[in-house]
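Q: How do we represent a protein-ligand complex in a form that can be generated token by token?
A: Start from the inputs.
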Amino acid sequence: MNSSEIIDSGSLTGDNSYFIFSELVDYQKEGNVLFLRLTEGSIALEFLTSDILRVVMAKGDNQVDFSSTPAVVDHTLNYNNFSILDRTELLEVKTESLKILINKKKFSLSFYDLEDKLIHQDHNDHALGWSGDQVRAWKKLEEQERFYGLGEKTGYLDKRGRKYTMWNTDTFNPHVPSTDPLYQSIPFLIGFNQGRSYGIYFDNSYQTYFDLGLNSKEYYSFWSEGGKLDYYFINGSNIKEIIKSYTDLTGRMPLPPKWSLGYHQSRYSYHPEAEVREIAQKFREKEIPCDVIHLDIHYMDEYKVFTWDEKEFPQPKQMLSDLSEDGFKVVTIIDPGVKKDPRYKLYQEGIKHDYFCKYLDGEYYIAKVWPGECSFPDFTKVEVRRWWGDQHHLLLDQGVKGIWNDMNEPGIFSKTSTMDLEVVHDNDGDMGTHRRFHNLYGLLEGQATYEGLKRYNSEKRPFVLTRAGFSGIQRYSAVWTGDNRSFWIHLELAIPMLMNMGLSGITFCGTDVGGFADNSDGELLTRWIQLGLFMPFLRNHCAINNINQEPWSFGKEYEEIIRKYIKLRYRFLTHLYNLFYRAHQSGLPVMRPLVLEYPEDEKTYNLSDQFMVGDSVLVAPVYQPDRSERMVYLPKGEWQDFWTGQSYQGQKYIIAKAPLDTIPIFIKAGAILPLSPVMNYVGEEKIEELELNIYLSGDVKEGSYRLYEDDGSSFAYQQGGYNIREFSYLYYTDRLEFNIDSLADDYQLEYSSYLIKFRNLDLEPSVVMIDGVKSDQWQYNNGNLELKVEIEASKIELK
Ligand code: MIG
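Then emit the structure tokens for the protein with MIG bound:
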């Protein structure tokens, strides 16, 4: 091999020398693949679309291996309409949107748009290489470049300047702002250079790393301890398009049951039965809305999964049915460890059918977790996933409504805190050690669970919650960010963490509200609930030895405010659910960093403590104690204070009032926002009327909002069983025209009318016409300049 070698200390684990791909010997186009043969091996450039290019490297004489991890969905993306121009030093490859230059002397790729503007390029001295089992890519780091994505990571919104490891890890203590890795591995990166963006998805499930400008200011780099170098370069004119393409590759969230967007109450652990009932009753007595109660490990008999502790929960079916009468859905925790107990049926079955993880010589891998010594299902086998999924029927038969997957990194009580790396996974015959499958364990368990729940009742959308995961986890499960702590700093770091998870395809995410470990307090819980109002997944959870942190635990003053905010969550549910639908359709997150909406505004590039909910609601949580105001950045345009209606011109910082009972919320002028009636739980009562708020402004001449609605629980939406309405208006000097268009109407709406509130209408209308007929269904309030009009919803016909 005629390779140049370089020394690079970027792994921070000592110096490494690498074989670096250099000279192009030969190339060949086969369908949608351009095969390159170089002195050091082969590289396949597989075009999926004119914007998505997969780069796969093979060492030496090896054939290119096109297999993917289970993160990548079966897709039919295939693009072969590219041209190749052989120039002296370069190969020039063109698609309908990209020009790619391949350096023939020293391999590197450069990506340009068709106007010859550089989008991104490899490091020109060493672009691809390997060292032993390690495979690695180096990329040019642009001076102004920012990085987003990478899923569940600590730190600020912009991930530049740090090195990150992808290795699912149970991280209880220490858990600080620099802790890395955490529970999930999402090797997806968004590069953003002054408004230009691209994505890189590194499809490798081994332990991988991203050094984003720590070791060098010239280049950034990602690498893996094994497997192959296989990444997707994703071009797009903005970050939204990149997320769409990334989720074309790794899938999107199916719509969850609507109740799972409600408030969840949990703790480690509510038991016995009487305590669960008491908690539930308290919510209803106090009229604090709550949809879901979680049962942590104490509901089980000796922590044996899929069993009940018969002393503490003698009649689970009765308990669950009583709770369900009262609107509560119960979610039970499941750990992957199966107690090694010859009298335990699940263990017997696992042994009998060869479902547990073993070493190569056939010895079982046994390790301690909560139940004591355990065996671990090998989720890489299709029959194991099926078997495991079917076990849930025992719980569902009793009335359990959702499953919470914990300890699935897997977390083990051992020095490394996880499974022995030499354990072998069967993977339906394509065996590999735990090094290869570690990061996939939670994803595959998630798949087993989701599919098991769906098999049990194909009419009901499953609800699954997970701690560990890999790219693609959004297809099966909501994600919570594990064992945070009841410290203010954890409230602060939740904001950019959740935003980056959203950018990484994981829409349905949240942190333990109030903090898991350590003792919370009234102020902290209140502020966390205020943030929680807009977190896609809203659950209050805390650890075993800590003081209670239910909404009423810290006295009346806090309880009042917390109630107000949980109620407000239910007011926002129609809007949130609508955004969930958008996420299901296009991958666009619910909780969005401002840079997603304002990519031209530099002030948003690392704005880590504010976010948007959709494109018109801006939220600035308070994450420090003792505050009564905070600085808020408002991007361009006019913004109206959600609480007071006061209007602000954007592109500047303001000091917003934020006493304990207020979280600053701003609505973009011109926006339309639906608000639903408060209920104790989703579906408690029929929604009679939906409120539509129109935030008028003299400067904004038009606005629109597209609302998706369905039954919130079945899969009928996949067969068109939904309703879409578009509300729009034109605001002229002398008149205002409001339209409702029905774009789909296969779902019978619950409510019969809209209450439309035109805010900031500075003149009382002389006449209001509905469908050309003069109406008296309106009221104008001179004081707050609000016009209310009631319109029958049922009359609107499909366009
Ligand atoms: O070793 O089930 O992150 O939410 O309460 C701790 C007990 C195991 C860790 C989870 C946490 C849960 C706890 N679990």
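Residues 382-398 form the longest helix (17 residues). The first strand starts at residue 4 and ends at 8.
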